[in-house]
Design a protein that fits this description.
The protein contains 8 helices and 21 strands. By secondary structure, it is of the alpha+beta class. Strand 16 and strand 17 form a beta hairpin. Helix 1 crosses helix 2 and helix 3 packs across helix 4. The longest helix has 20 residues. The radius of gyration is 21 Å and the shape is globular.
Length: 468
């Protein structure tokens, strides 16, 4: 997530009108083994209202930049997974991000749906979609287009209902392939997950199945000067693989924090943005197409799902201001000890498919917090980093850990404590540079340094509850 809004720091008076929300149920668990996998899938385009009285701003880089044209329309896609009883819904939406307030509206629209234990909503994080958080409008004004948000919720509901209407029995296969020369990590240390992961559902009746691709890069190959509506490379990848395979394809962003994106494959991405998108997409399509059946491993129909509610201190006054102005709709609760006196109530979810764990994380987590590879050390207090999520998963018998970021909420960047550095004069408002000249932009879009340890602690709680 990138933000370029100049913020006022006069926040004290505004906090007096902030409502604290209830904590809700602390955890939820369901598990089921069966004779077969069952899945359903659906898709629905999100069409902008041409007669809307409000502007439609593009998200990701610049404030108040109106969308000038369309490369391709954003889509809501859903897959339902079960082992014969009730199951889990995953809804993926092509947008920059959604906070928990919008996720609640989507869940409410599906409150009558049967045989669904839990609904998860995540964003593909395209930086060429409309502003769905409200952060890229005029300064201090909600940038969301109400008509578009209504269409987004309707599309999410429609794709979920389609998924529930065409449930099939079948098999589930897992695979991965290493992508080479694809990434640009703009912040030291250079840590990326170079794998493109695939889950493939194959229907028993021989009809089309479904695939989910997991990849740890920001969807912003069109870069910051772009004003054309697009799903970016997730859309191109999915469209092409659907045409090649006859399966519905979804994209899920992995650990993209810190800040991991795809490389620039052209000389000038301002003048050649669409060409850069095409090259990036074609390379990923080639990697996805290289996955053959002998690279796949079949997963037994064993499903477990845990949702853990938790609260993270809200130290960032900018986020509190957005909440107070009604721009962000995350759940806020009183939290004595945080820099603002508030915390964000959110959730981390864990979906186990046989021995594959999928962590649904409400933000943009740094890859080193997953893998435990090299950490930065710019924080002068030298705090310890939490145990890497991959190590926690391994300790509990998980063979592979996949990440879906920006799931069910958006906490911004989840930064290792050892590398968390703030501007001394205007912390969280102005970015700063460390002694090596490294830019610490991500901290301005983070709830605070305690987020990463709490995420790790909550993840360990969740994996213990699965019984692994």
């Amino acid at each position: 997530m990138k933000r370029s809004i100049l913020l006022s720091t006069s926040i004290i008076f505004l906090t007096l009108i902030l409502c604290a929300c209830g904590a809700g149920s602390p955890s939820f668990k369901v598990s089921a083994n069966g004779e077969s996998w069952y899945f359903g899938f659906g898709a629905e385009k999100i069409m902008p209202n041409e007669n809307s009285a409000q502007p439609l701003y593009i998200a990701g880089y610049n404030s108040a930049l109106s969308i000038s044209g369309v490369l391709d329309h954003c889509t809501a896609k859903s897959i339902y997974i079960s082992t014969g009883g009730s199951g889990i819904l995953l809804i993926g939406i092509d947008c920059i991000a959604l906070d928990s307030g919008t996720v609640k509206k989507i869940r409410a629209s599906l409150s009558d749906i049967k045989n669904v234990d839990y609904i998860n909503v995540y964003s593909t994080h395209t930086h060429a979609g409309p502003d769905t958080l409200g952060l890229w409008g005029e300064t201090g004004i909600d940038g969301k287009n109400d008509d578009y948000m209504a269409e987004l919720i309707k599309a999410a509901e429609a794709c979920a209902r389609k998924a529930m209407s065409n449930i099939k029995s079948g098999s589930l296969f897992y695979s991965k392939t290493e992508t080479k020369g694809m990434f640009r990590d703009s912040r030291d240390p250079i840590v990326t997950d170079d794998n493109l992961y695939q889950l493939r559902f194959c229907a028993d009746d021989g009809t089309g199945g479904a695939r989910i691709y997991f990849y740890g890069a920001h969807a912003e190959s069109l870069r910051g000067a772009n004003s054309l509506l697009s799903r970016d490379f997730p859309g191109k990848l999915c469209d092409s693989m659907e045409e090649k395979t006859g399966d519905m394809c979804m994209f899920a962003p992995g650990a993209i924090g810190g800040l991991v994106m795809t490389k620039e494959f052209v000389y000038d991405t301002t003048a050649q943005a669409v060409e850069n998108l095409e090259i990036t997409s074609n390379k990923l399509i080639e990697y996805a197409s290289s996955i053959t059946s002998d690279m796949e491993r079949e997963l037994a129909p064993k499903l477990s799902f845990v949702s853990e509610k938790f609260t993270v201190p809200l130290d960032n006054p900018a986020f509190l201001l957005y909440k107070t102005l009604g721009i962000l709709t995350n759940d806020a609760v009183r939290y004595p000890g945080s820099a603002t006196g508030y915390g964000v109530r959110t959730e981390l979810n864990l979906l186990m498919l046989d021995d594959i764990a999928i962590a649904l994380i409400p933000g943009e987590i740094f890859p080193e917090l997953i893998s435990g590879k090299a950490y930065g050390n710019a924080n002068p207090e030298k705090p310890e980093n939490p145990k890497p999520l991959y190590d926690i998963a391994k300790e509990h018998g998980v063979s592979e850990l996949l990440i879906i970021g920006l799931a069910n909420d958006e906490l911004g960047y989840i930064v290792p404590p050892s590398d968390f550095l703030l501007n001394e004069k205007l912390p969280y408002i102005e970015r700063t540079m460390d002694h090596k000249g490294e830019d610490h932009y991500e901290e301005t879009n983070s709830v605070g340094p305690q987020c990463a340890p709490i995420i790790a602690e909550t993840f360990e709680k969740a994996i213990k509850r699965t019984g692994k």
